Amino acid sequence: MPLQPPVLLDGKQLAQQMQDALAQKIQHLLPQVGRPPGLAVLMVGDNPASAAYVRNKERACERVGIASFGHHFPADVSQAELTQVIHQLNADERVDGILVQLPLPNHLDAEALLYEILPEKDADGLHPMNLGRLVRKEPGLKSCTPAGVMRLLEQYQLSPQGKHAVVIGRSILVGKPIALMLLDANATVTMAHSKTPDLKATVLAADIVVAAVGQPNLITADMVKPGAIVIDVGINRVQDESGKARLVGDVDFANVQPRSSYITPVPGGVGAMTVAMLLENTTWSYCQRCKASYNDETPTQR
Ligand code: GUN
After folding, report:
1. Could you confirm whether domain 144-269 is CATH 3.30.70.120?
2. Cβ(124) – ligand 1 distance below 6 Å
3. Which of 75, 103, 137, 146 lies at a CB distance of 3.0 to 4.6 Å from 45, suitable for a disulfide?
């Protein structure tokens, strides 16, 4: 067992600090550029989780001085209509970032839509060009959740170098990009997924566990090496005994926490960081597009 009590990795607090710094930066750039940064958010249907994320993102934009342009479509919107709106937003000078809230209804092809976003306005860092830049270690827009996880590790001076990181989940939103970022930070990385034969043995080998599946209680205490760093990317809505909805991650927090050295809570861990990175990406795009200096004092390399 770790000698020190486990430390909570406080994403909420770090995200707040990042938002304060961004608000100042935007305030400073506004007279120079003549307009605020702009973020367009496309949401389809009425998925309550997506609606909550979108509300959060819009509120956060308002807090730091980013103009948000919400586009809400009925669940049966066509691929052609969404494509057309993305093309309009690509051409809109007020818009520096465009994001399509995922997941989309089954009749829509999300990957095809992501192709349509101009890479320099790809606030979520999910366009093939930006994912390719990540593979090649070139500067570019980084996927928000993985970049947020890396920033949180940096904040607590938890270097992945020399550590064995096990990423559970292989989505393009989180699993694949975070595995690449950890690899570039000199971790030895294993990717586990639904077809991994012995998930418990795989996760038990990890110094850093990253759970990004979307399945409550997937990671239990018996799967975690004592002293491991546990990053819970899952945000799952469950009902407690009284029928009230609450958010839980992919990790059985109550039982895993005592075995860990550092662990992210849900909520208040990775989720808040995702939003902060989105705002940072949008502001970075704004600076690139307007030839203003981003003057980044933060440690993350772009
Ligand atoms: N759905 C859940 N998380 C995210 C995110 O970070 N970006 C987008 N676009 N959709 C999501």
Report:
1. no
2. yes
3. 75
Segment 106-116, tens digit of pLDDT: 999 999 999 99
* Same fold: 33-119 with 144-269: yes
Q: Tell me how far apart the alpha carbons of residues 140 and 285 are, in angstroms, rounded to a whole number.
A: 9
The CATH superfamily assigned to 33-119 is Leucine Dehydrogenase, chain A, domain 1 (3.40.50.10860)
Query: What is the separation of C-alpha 170 from the centre of its chain, rounded to a whole number of angstroms?
Result: 14
β-partners of residue 44 are: 73
Does residue 99's CB lie within 6 angstroms of at least one atom of ligand 1? yes
- In angstroms, the CA 205 to CA 203 distance is 5
Length of the chain: 302
Which residue among 39, 108, 173 is best mutated to probe the pocket of ligand 1, counting the most ligand atoms within 8 A of its Cβ? 173
- Say whether pTM exceeds 0.85: yes
Q: Are strands 7-8 and 262-263 parallel, antiparallel or unpaired?
A: parallel
Backbone angles phi, psi at 49, to 5 degrees: -65, -45
Contact 281 CB / ligand 1 (< 6 Å): no
Other CB atoms closer than 10 Å to residue 3's CB: what's the count? Answer: 6
- Residues annotated catalytic, as ranges: 57, 101, 124
Q: Per-residue pLDDT tens for 254-292?
A: 999 999 999 999 999 999 999 999 999 999 999 999 988
Return the domain boundaries, the chain: 33-119, 144-269
Residue 297 has pLDDT above 70, yes or no: no
Q: What is the pLDDT of residue 3?
A: 54
Question: CA distances (Å), 120 to each of 13, 133, 178, 232, 275, in order?
Answer: 29, 12, 21, 29, 18
